């Protein structure tokens, strides 16, 4: 993955606890182009790498814009970005990656954002508008103070397609998900991003209304490492070397592999970023991530060692990192 240097060209408070950052290339180079839904890795010394979605229009690739929610529970990354990183600073980033891309052929889209999940949704709205694809955008936050980019949404050429919803709205104007999802058609796609509970709510509603899985697309920002009383120890065999690693009950495969000297790339350690994805040659993974699609899970040829386990007594894996 290409590492790039980026200068902080602008830093703005967009809402309560949300800061946006505009990154521009250092020296006379161009940033790689990106597509709506893409994210970049951000690197800060001494902290685990973090991913943030790009929220500017993909047609405007000579800068990358992202927004960061200050998260008290985080391991310090968002706090450092809010408090310490300033205009003019140079940071390391990756080239854009996209696990949340718009479908290549589509007649219409419904975009739904919860909180900071608005960032990839903004880039999608810009791209759909440029492509002439009809869409509506529904943005839910706890209160107006927590709604980022409202001025941009109101000034956009597509402002008439945007609806805002606030949990604390006295008039109780909440998103009526059943009504929104009631009308589906083969060329209509649904994209949503936000907190886990919000995404689960939309996923469940879409399934209940009969939306096919390949027309439903979402991206999780955080997850949980689920443990079960029925969890058992299992073995991981490294295909190339034959090394056997035991994953104890109560231990993640990631920690067992790292302890055994395997340099597994990781970031979220919660099954949402995809960074630790590891090819599986034999055995049946017990998928517990939020990253893979149902079709990818069914194929069983990759798994996320940060959160997933194994149904079979042994998984033979072929790390490609
Ligand atoms: Fe993010 Fe495993 S480290 S999915």
Task: Tell me about this structure.
- This protein has 321 residues and is α/β, with parallel strands linked by helices.
- It folds into three domains: 3-94, Beta Barrel (Elongation Factor Tu (Ef-tu), domain 3); 108-220, Rossmann fold; 234-317, Roll (Ubiquitin-like (UB roll)).
- It contains seven helices and 18 strands.
- The chain has helices at residues 77-83, 118-131, 150-155, 177-181, 196-208, 253-259, 294-299, and strands at residues 3-15, 18-25, 39-43, 50-53, 64-69, 90-94, 108-114, 135-141, 162-166, 188-194, 216-220, 234-238, 244-247, 278-282, 285-286, 302-303, 309-310, 314-317.
- A six-stranded antiparallel beta sheet has the order 4-3-6-1-2-5, with helices on one face.
- The radius of gyration is 20 Å and the shape is globular.
- FE2/S2 (inorganic) cluster is lined by residues 266-269, 271-276, 289, 291, 304, 306.
Describe this protein with a few key phrases.
binds FE2/S2 (inorganic) cluster, Rossmann fold, 6-stranded antiparallel β-sheet, 321 residues, 5-stranded parallel β-sheet, alpha/beta, Ubiquitin-like (UB roll), 3 domains, 7 helices, 18 strands
Unreliable residue runs? none
Query: CATH superfamily of the largest domain, please?
Result: Nucleotide-binding domain of ferredoxin-NADP reductase (FNR) module
Distance between the termini: 11 Å
**Approximate helicity band:** 10-25%
> Could you tell me the mean pLDDT?
93
Total number of helical segments?
Answer: 7
Report the structural category.
alpha/beta
Radius of gyration: 20 Å
Query: In one word, what is the shape?
Result: globular
Q: What would the CATH topology of the largest domain be?
A: Rossmann fold
What is the count of structural domains?
Answer: 3
Bound molecules: FE2/S2 (inorganic) cluster
- Please tally the β strands and state the result: 18
CATH architecture descriptor name of the largest domain: 3-Layer(aba) Sandwich
Q: Secondary-structure element order, as H and E?
A: EEEEEHEEHEHEHEHEEEHEEHEEE
């Amino acid at each position: 993955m290409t590492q790039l240097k980026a200068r902080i060209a602008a830093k703005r408070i967009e809402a309560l606890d949300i800061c946006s950052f505009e990154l521009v290339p250092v020296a006379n180079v161009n940033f790689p182009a990106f597509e709506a839904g893409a994210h970049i890795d951000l690197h800060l010394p001494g902290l685990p790498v973090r991913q943030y979605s790009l929220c500017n229009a993909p047609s405007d690739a000579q800068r990358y814009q992202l927004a960061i929610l200050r998260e008290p529970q985080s391991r310090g990354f968002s706090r450092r970005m809010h408090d310490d990183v300033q205009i003019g600073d140079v940071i390391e980033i990756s080239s854009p990656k996209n696990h949340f891309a718009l479908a290549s052929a589509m007649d219409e889209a419904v975009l739904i954002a919860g909180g900071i999940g608005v960032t990839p949704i903004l880039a999608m709205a810009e791209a759909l508008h440029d492509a002439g694809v009809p869409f509506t955008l529904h943005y839910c936050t706890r209160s107006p103070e927590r709604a980022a980019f409202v001025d941009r949404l109101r000034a956009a050429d597509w402002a008439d397609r945007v609806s805002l919803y606030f949990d604390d709205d006295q008039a109780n104007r909440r998103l009526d998900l059943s009504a929104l999802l009631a009308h589906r058609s083969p060329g209509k796609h649904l994209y949503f991003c936000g907190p886990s509970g919000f995404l689960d709510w939309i996923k469940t509603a879409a399934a209940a209304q009969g939306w096919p899985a390949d027309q439903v697309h979402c991206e999780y920002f955080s997850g949980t490492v689920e443990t079960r009383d029925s969890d058992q120890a299992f073995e991981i065999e490294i295909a190339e070397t034959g090394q056997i690693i035991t994953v104890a009950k109560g231990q993640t495969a990631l920690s067992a592999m790292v302890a055994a000297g395997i340099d597994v790339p990781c970031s979220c350690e919660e099954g949402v970023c995809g960074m630790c994805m590891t090819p599986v040659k034999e055995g049946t993974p017990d998928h517990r991530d939020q990253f893979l699609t149902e079709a990818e899970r069914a194929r069983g040829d990759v798994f996320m060692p940060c959160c997933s386990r194994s149904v079979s007594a042994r998984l033979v894996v072929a790390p490609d990192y």
